[in-house]
């Protein structure tokens, strides 16, 4: 069951109280990515917040933040990029299980892809 506040966080919209009722507004209200992921994850019956995916995604997010908002030259390696992508796939798989009760269809591929760029 989703509430107006949950929808507000997921849609990144402000929620206001008008005439005794919570209403979504068109104005933006930015939420942290991890907060939105955890909210989605809790929609399932048994959230697995103790899984390794949470820590790995935090590490991947830190790497992303260092690249996006550099304070110094960040250290970047093929192994750290691989781990970050695997963390995203693992997180998607956990969210699929929580929301859809099935695995993320492409999770078994890991980093193997048939796409050529």
Topology overview:
Layout: H1 4-11, E1 13-18, E2 21-28, H2 33-41, H3 52-68, H4 78-100
Antiparallel strand pairs: 1-2
Helix pairs in contact: 3-4
Characterise this structure.
Helix content is 49%, strand content 12%. The protein is globular, with a radius of gyration of 17 Å. The model has no long low-confidence stretch (mean pLDDT 85). It is mainly alpha-helical and 117 residues long. A two-stranded antiparallel sheet has the order 1-2. The protein contains 4 helices and 2 strands. A hairpin with a 2-residue loop joins strand 1 (13-18) and strand 2 (21-28). The protein has helices spanning 4-11, 33-41, 52-68, 78-100; strands at residues 13-18, 21-28.
| Regions with little confidence, pLDDT below 50 for 5+ residues | none
Q: What is the terminal separation in angstroms?
A: 41 Å
Structural class: mainly alpha
Strand content: 5-15%
Radius of gyration: 17 Å
Biggest beta-sheet profile: 2 strands, antiparallel
Q: How would you sum up the global shape? A: globular
User: Total number of helical segments?
Assistant: 4
Mean pLDDT: 85
**Order of adjacent strands in the largest pleated sheet:** 1-2
Tell me roughly what share of residues is in helical segments: 40-55%
Give me the strand/helix succession: HEEHHH
- State the total count of DSSP E strands: 2
